[in-house]
Design a protein that fits this description.
With 207 residues, the protein is α+β, with helices and mostly antiparallel strands. The chain is built from eight helices and four strands, in the order βαβαββαααααα. The structure holds glutathione. It comes from Microvirga flocculans.
């Protein structure tokens, strides 16, 4: 498999999941500053011009939620997703909230141009976004509780996605101090060998 990623972007979750699964994969960094996500070749793979994109033996897969679920199911020995239908649905519920609500709230900080042209509207979104993200994080803080993982005792591919959202929080102006459970989860994730390997590969320092 081949993962197209950008350092520290949401693709970090898929990168961690591949490493946790001990998958055979290579990585292709996409340079956003050079506009590599908008080249015709990349848009052929991912028409939205986003990362992650995963090239598999079956073809190209986009969208983090699908990529994480695929990695988990393609590597059952790694036990990265629950077997019971109910627990699996709980995992999807968390991942869907992370991908379709928290990530989008975050995008209003620096990518307001997707939703408005008026510079005042964009600035207004940037001002409001941290409080919206904090409200999202409060829901996750309560759901996580003592954890240690977002589904309770069992680690799953929902954890790397939660990790990315909390990894972004403080640099985006959302302090984690009011969210001790999330802060502990961030630290717990960074204690994992797979996460350390991926942070090193993406040249990121622990937070
Ligand atoms: N729904 C997609 C969203 C992916 C996404 O928005 N990725 C961002 C990086 S965090 C991106 O590639 N942005 C490129 C751009 O906006 O030009 C997913 O969950 O995989």
């Amino acid at each position: 498999m081949k993962l197209y990623y950008k350092q520290g972007a949401v693709s970090l979750a898929s990168h961690i999941a591949l490493e946790e699964a001990e998958a055979v994969f290579e990585t292709v960094p996409i340079n956003f500053k050079a506009g590599e996500q908008r080249t015709p070749e990349y848009l052929d793979l991912n028409p939205l011009g986003r990362v992650p994109t995963l090239m598999t033996e079956h073809g190209v897969l986009t969208e983090t939620l699908a990529i994480l679920t695929y990695i988990a199911q393609a590597h059952p020995a790694a036990q990265l997703a629950p077997e019971s239908p109910w627990d699996f649905a709980q995992m999807l519920s968390v991942m869907s909230f992370l991908a379709s609500t928290v990530h989008i709230s975050t995008a209003h900080m620096n990518r307001g141009y997707r939703w408005a042209d008026d510079p005042n509207a964009i600035a207004d979104m940037r001002r409001k976004a941290p409080s919206v993200v904090a409200a999202d994080l409060k829901i996750l803080e309560d759901r996580l509780g003592a954890g240690p993982w977002i589904l309770g005792p069992h680690y799953s591919v929902a954890d790397p996605l939660l990790f990315v959202m909390t990894w972004w929080a403080e640099p985006d102006g959302v302090p984690l101090a009011p969210f001790p459970n999330l802060r502990a989860h961030l630290t717990r994730m960074q204690d994992r060998e797979a996460v350390q390997n991926v942070l090193t590969r993406e040249r990121l320092l622990p937070r």
